[in-house]
Write a structure and sequence with these properties.
Length: 179
């Protein structure tokens, strides 16, 4: 976290979900790195008052079990039931054995683009997406999944891709061209 015009004095955990950072006015800026278990809320206090602009919610990740050394080779994606009209048309195991990718055809573009929504109904958490017919990043426990589509018109009827791995996927939408 960055402090502008303040310097840290102390850090204390108030309860299991909240922590307080006490600061005092000082010219310049500083970066404060807080280690240990994350707290849901970090409140910054200066001169015995809450600094409203520096209150922030910090998402607390649930510690995941240690992933196995390699991703299991499976015929279908893990923890995901595809719609009845969908069929896996091809798949491959990544050379580093850390992920699998499946290509799935659901028979209609409308069903293809509904797969991420189906995944969230099955307990997957949506981390981010960059377009309705683009790339979705989801996770469920220690399992990470990327669902991707072609973006151009009729391409939404092409097979969609599903990549699964135990390595954390970072959502980074591609830049869009400007007209």
């Amino acid at each position: 976290m960055w402090l502008f015009s303040y310097a840290p004095d102390s850090y204390e955990v108030i309860d299991g979900a909240t922590a307080a950072l006490n600061v005092h006015p000082q010219p310049g800026y500083r970066m404060v790195v807080i280690t240990g278990d994350p707290r849901r809320t970090l409140v910054v206090f200066g001169q015995d008052r809450k600094l409203e602009l520096l209150t922030m919610d910090v998402p607390a990740a649930v510690p995941a079990a240690s992933p196995p050394p390699s991703f299991p080779a499976t015929a279908q994606p893990l923890e995901l039931t595809l719609p009845a009209s969908c069929q896996i048309v091809s798949s491959y195991r990544h050379t580093d054995e850390q992920a699998n990718t499946w290509y799935v055809q659901c028979g209609a573009g409308k069903v293809n683009v509904a797969v991420p929504s189906e995944a969230t109904q099955q307990g997957w958490t949506l981390i981010g997406n960059d377009a309705p017919d683009g790339t979705y990043v989801l996770h469920k426990g220690a399992l990470w999944m990327q669902i991707f589509f072609r973006r151009d018109g009729p391409g939404t009827r092409d097979p969609l891709g599903i990549l699964q791995t135990y390595r954390q996927l970072v959502f980074n939408p591609a830049p869009r061209p400007t007209p």
